[in-house]
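Z., the sequence and structure:
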Amino acid sequence: MAKQYWLMKSEPDVFSIDDLRREGSTCWEGVRNYQARNNMRDMKVGDEVIYYHSNAKPPGAVGIARVCKKAYPDHFALQKGHKYFDAKSDPDNPRWFMVDVEFVAEFDECVGLAELKSDPELADMELIRYGRLSVQAVKKSEFGRVKKMAGCKK
């Protein structure tokens, strides 16, 4: 199957691109939106990800990650007392999933949302049209354009 491209949002004070670089990889837990969950279930090892800082000034694309482990049940949904606990979760029929991502590159500068919105080549990008979804598909051409805007060679 061909490589796919994604955008994943994280608040920088929760888990920043710097945190990912320092740790090397992480599980992407806590997604509690069905469409975002479905997107993660579609991810394959080797898929590339635009790492996006939301709730930042400015919000924007800050780097590249890669899926290094395909979707598996989010075990935090089953842990009573955990912030991602979901009482309706069932270990025999998991409701929530996560993937692991690894660090690839950090952009020299954030490509801010305003800059992304002003680029006509990105007018159809899910980020521009639907904004709120935390895990979204990105077309190969959009992925390449964002990397070019960031001056990223990796």
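The longest strand covers residues 97-112. The two ends are 22 Å apart (CA to CA).

Let me know what you think.
H.
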